[in-house]
Amino acid sequence: MKVGMISDDTIEAMGSFLGRLSKRQQVIASNLANIDTPGYRTKDISFHATMQELLAESPPLRVTRPEHRAGDTRIFGAREPMVFEVEGLTSRPDRNNVDLDREMFKLGETSFAYATIVQLLRTKLRIIASSINEGRVGG
């Protein structure tokens, strides 16, 4: 996310994380929409892997594999988050393994994380605005 002439790695990371949280909510909504679909398997996005990926991309960059050199590694979240099928969940007789309680918990967890990142982003933008206004109130 670019803000005019301002390029900030923290803002870019927060924007990328918000995009990933949004994608996770889409996956959870899909799970809930398919709660009665025979044979449907629960899907999710790994947030531990997402954070590790974002941290690995954040400066200072350390290239450890040749594939890391491809593309502009300064752009956070250039890759789509990986959606995977959740293993080890109990299946019903119709082979569907969506659990309403689990999905509602994940939805709440994701919504909380989204709200937290938005609040951090607001704070960061207020700091930038304050710097531009040289600390003047109501500037």
Would you give an account of this structure?
By secondary structure, the chain is mainly alpha-helical. It has one domain (9-132). Helix content is 50%, strand content 4%. The protein has helices spanning 9-33, 47-57, 100-132; strands at residues 43-45, 83-85. A two-stranded antiparallel ribbon has the order 1-2. α1 runs antiparallel to α3. The longest helix has 33 residues, at 100-132. The radius of gyration is 19 Å and the shape is elongated.
Widest beta sheet: strand line-up: 1-2
Mean pLDDT value: 80
The fraction of residues assigned to DSSP E strands is under 5%
Largest sheet: 2 strands, antiparallel
Whole-Å distance between the termini? 25 Å
The rounded Rg comes to 19 Å
Structural domain count:
1
Number of strands: 2
How many distinct helices? 3
Structural class based on helices, strands and sheet pairing: mainly alpha
